[in-house]
TrEMBL record:
Keywords recorded for this protein, A-Z: DNA-binding, Transcription, Transcription regulation
Protein name, per record: Transcriptional regulator
UniProt-recorded Gene Ontology molecular function terms: DNA binding; DNA-binding transcription factor activity
Residues in HTH arsR-type domain copies: 1-90
Entry annotated with the keyword tRNA-binding: no
């Protein structure tokens, strides 16, 4: 669960998750383009790729390869696990 908090601590990674929430199943190129246009991000493709790896390690992003393309999908199940961990605190 610590990986989830670490992944969410970075504003660029939160922006990536926002973009995948808006339109799931994007390639690295599409994510980079949307981050630049909507968030003014100046991060390189390599930096965004590293952020995606952190999100994938935390279980917040899944990927699927189709030919030469790799598509990224948001997975909110780790967030649901956090929300249900302390049921008495609702």
């Amino acid at each position: 669960m610590g990986d989830v908090f670490k992944a969410l601590a970075d504003p660029t990674r939160r922006a990536i998750l926002d973009e995948l929430t808006d339109r799931d199943g994007q390639t690295l190129f599409e994510i980079c383009t949307r981050l630049t246009m909507k968030h003014g991000s100046g991060s390189s493709r390599q930096a965004i790729s590293q952020h995606l790896e952190v999100l994938e390690s935390a279980g917040l992003v899944r990927t699927r390869r189709e030919g030469r393309y790799k598509y990224h999908f948001i997975d909110t199940s780790p967030l649901r696990n956090i929300a249900t961990r302390w049921p008495g605190n609702q």
